[in-house]
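haha ok so turns out i had the wrong file open the whole time. this is the CORRECT one, sorry everyone. sequence first:
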Amino acid sequence: MTTPPAQDRSVDLARLLKGWVAAEAIPSLHVTGVESDSRKLTAGALFLATAGLHRHGLEFLEQAIAAGCSAVVYDPDGAESVLGSHDASVPLIAVEDL
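then structure:
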C-alpha cells in the first residue's frame, strides 16, 4: 500500500488579508493556519493578537514567536504600550477592528 503525497495546506498571507490591509503592506509568505491563542500555535501559523477586556494578545508575542508563528496580525487598539517593549523577528501587520 502506498501513502498518498502530503498536500500543501499553506495559504498565501496576501490572500487571507485581501481587503483588510493594503497589498504593499503584506509580506510575501504562506501560513499554515490561523490561531489567536499563543498556547495553541504551531510552526508556520498566523497569530491573531486581538485586544481583550484585560490584556492584549501582543502581550504574548514572545510566546507566539517561540512557537514558530510566521507573522502576527494585530489590533492596533491598545497596542501602543505593548509594541514598544518587543523586538519582533516576524512581520507585524496592523488590522483595524480585528
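The first strand starts at residue 11 and ends at 12.
again sry for the mixup
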